[in-house]
Specification:
With about 80 residues, the chain is mainly α. Helices cover about 80% and strands about 0% of the residues. The two termini are about 45 Å apart.
Amino acid sequence: MSAGEKGQSKGEQISGKIKEFAGKLTGNERLKNEGRGEQVKGNVREAKEDTKGAVGGFVEGMRDDDRHRPGEGPGPDRRA
């Protein structure tokens, strides 16, 4: 996860918690629900970035596997 995206997702989560708490404290349902929504938005952003990182790592691992198997598939170790 990039630092900017991580900061943004954490900011949304924290801001949402504060709004939800303020809404509960004052009895303001709109503010409470808005806070919950921001938390969900932050959680989704974080999950998206985690998934991108995991997929990128998997793809990179697959590429590395292909490079380290002499005699299998195209590559500098394979002779015609």
